[in-house]
């Protein structure tokens, strides 16, 4: 998937939790082998070239494509797993894989964890007894500065923007890079959805993103425009700002 994953487990390291961590790591390697667009031998790359179909792939491929279609419907087509006309579900896969890795740990008894997939996080429980998790969000236009700190329990946080990879998110309606925003951070319960919606809101641009987030109360957003203006939805779980 072209990114780095990390695990922060605040529970006692029982044998079951250690085994689950190994299982979660193996899961992420499997996802990379199947879905990476950087690997010419991955099923997704082979599908994109027309060499195989969905029926030739592991069942997770059909699952992900169904989730992508649902995200596209929910965002009026602003999320797309074929941006620029080529199969690429990367805008959802990382969040989906990270959420599943978090669930593997939870099923083994780990109740207080942070699984980080390239800066997109699935948080469970607390960082310490009585203390919510705290996640710094980088300012996309001021390298080395924090835009805000998100706090929460049982929360998913995903950011799409230009800071790390430039203008890599395409407007699915034109096939051209989306240029109006510098970053979008979305929070909610499940990282699969939050990851996809952060990508979609970035592609939408300022005004449509405001309209969409107001209509979907299960999610909150923090947006920085390309001009440097900052806005957040009413219940965005921010602890502080450094504008």
Computed Rg: 18 Å
Number of helices: 6
CATH fold type? T-fold
Q: What summary fits the major beta sheet?
A: 7 strands, antiparallel
Overall structural domain count: 1
Describe the structure.
By secondary structure, this protein is of the alpha+beta class. The protein has helices spanning 15-35, 43-48, 59-74, 90-107, 191-204, 206-215, and strands spanning 5-9, 113-117, 120-124, 133-138, 146-152, 156-161, 181-188, 220-225, 230-232, 238-241. The strands form two sheets. A seven-stranded antiparallel beta sheet has the order 1-2-3-6-7-8-9, with helices on one face. A three-stranded antiparallel beta sheet has the order 4-5-10, with no helix packed on it. It has a single domain (5-241), classed as T-fold (Roll), CATH 3.10.520.10. It is built from six helices and ten strands. Strand 4 (133-138) and strand 5 form a beta hairpin.
């Amino acid at each position: 998937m072209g990114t780095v994953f990390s695990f922060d487990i605040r529970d006692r390291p029982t044998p079951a939790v250690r085994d689950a961590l190994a299982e979660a790591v193996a899961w992420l390697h499997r996802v990379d082998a199947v879905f990476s667009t950087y690997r010419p031998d991955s099923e997704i790359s082979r599908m994109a070239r027309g060499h195989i179909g969905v029926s030739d792939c592991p069942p997770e491929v059909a699952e992900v494509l169904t989730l992508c279609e649902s995200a596209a419907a929910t965002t009026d087509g602003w999320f797309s797993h074929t941006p620029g006309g080529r199969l690429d579900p990367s805008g959802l896969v990382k969040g989906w894989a990270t959420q599943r890795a978090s669930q593997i740990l939870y099923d083994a008894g780990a109740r207080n964890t942070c699984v980080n997939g390239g800066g997109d996080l699935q948080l469970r429980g607390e960082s310490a007894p009585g203390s919510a998790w705290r996640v710094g969000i980088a300012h996309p236009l001021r390298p080395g500065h924090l835009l805000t700190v998100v706090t929460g329990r049982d929360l998913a946080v995903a950011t799409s923007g230009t800071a790390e990879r430039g203008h890599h998110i395409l407007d699915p309606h034109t096939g051209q890079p989306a240029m109006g925003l510098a970053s979008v951070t979305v929070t909610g319960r499940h990282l699969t959805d939050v990851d996809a919606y952060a990508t979609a809101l970035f592609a939408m641009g300022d005004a449509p993103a405001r309209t969409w987030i107001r209509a979907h109360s299960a999610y909150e957003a923090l947006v920085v425009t390309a001009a440097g203006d900052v806005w957040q939805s009413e219940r965005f779980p921010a602890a502080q700002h450094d504008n």
